[in-house]
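Newbie here. two chains, one complex. Structure please?
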Amino acid sequence: MADTATFEPVHETGRDAAAPHAHIEHDTNTGISNTKLAMWLFLGSECLLFGALLTTYLLYKNPLPGQGPTREQLFDIPFTSASSFVLLMSSLTMVLAVAAIERSDHHRMRIWLGATAVLGSLFIAGQIYEFTTFYAEGLGYTTSRFGSAFYTLTGFHGVHVTAGIIMLVSLLLWSLRGNLPEHRSETVEVVGLYWHFVDVVWIVLFAVVYLIP
Amino acid sequence: MAHPQQPPVPTSVLDGAVEDYPSDWKYWRVAIILFVLTAIEVSTYVLADSVFSDSRVLIATLLFLMVVKFWAVAWYFMHLKFDKRILTVAFYSGLALAMVVYLCMLLAFRYFGDDGMICPSESLNCITEG
């Protein structure tokens, strides 16, 4: 059973009067809010989705002879490494945003949320550049089984990052309108969990897809 | 923009946590460690021929670094260390299930060679080419 109390929106200038009561033990069997538990279960199920895509990629990563360029001919490891650093640092800014809202520091939370969205956008820009380059070098989606598996795997991850950016911008707008008081800090935390998950997925993809020969 | 003076977030204001969330400085330290580990990962690409002549060592090293980075983000940034254990169980159950299912799939497709090295799935070529 989720919390049923309703709270009035507050603006950053005023303390959230409901905050001291916002994080008391939830009236659920687990003592955790259903939203947070649901997000963790969702992330657990996402492991199966990305596991399927990654396994398919591993099986198809070598194109048949004469079916377009190979991964060794295409991958630009220094560029992808820079993208990986960017996404990794976005996890830091995200956790700092969560810590800021837990301390009722709305101003700093907005700075870190904005930084996370910018870093995520940089990552997506890099992925678009990479896809465009690969396409120009002869790897289309249907060129080879490698192309299909690679674009599907990394494309799905890119879609997840894009969804995360939309959530971050939404949080930022809610906060600016005063609709994100500290008693709703769990919303930021749940979005943060999603964001960290796309980061850990990239940690796996970067190693398995790009680095392991 | 480090703010090491920021105190830990007390458990009393957290949702389902059993331990205080750490100070910002702790997060920065974890990020620095992740940065270094990623740099080591990338360096294996540069040093692949000179240092990692045995590809098994290279693969083992990369997998180890990957697991450490994954764990660090989940444990500290996703707060599994500080939250109730049921969240750890919920997440790692899905992860373990995925690993078992897809490892079985890779084995079924003979992805792993007899010599213990990962082979480039020629066996699948045979299947697809009939």
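Moderator note: The helical segments of chain A are 34-60, 71-74, 77-102, 106-136, 145-176, 185-211. Confidence is low (pLDDT under 50) at residues 1-15 of chain A. Thread marked as resolved.
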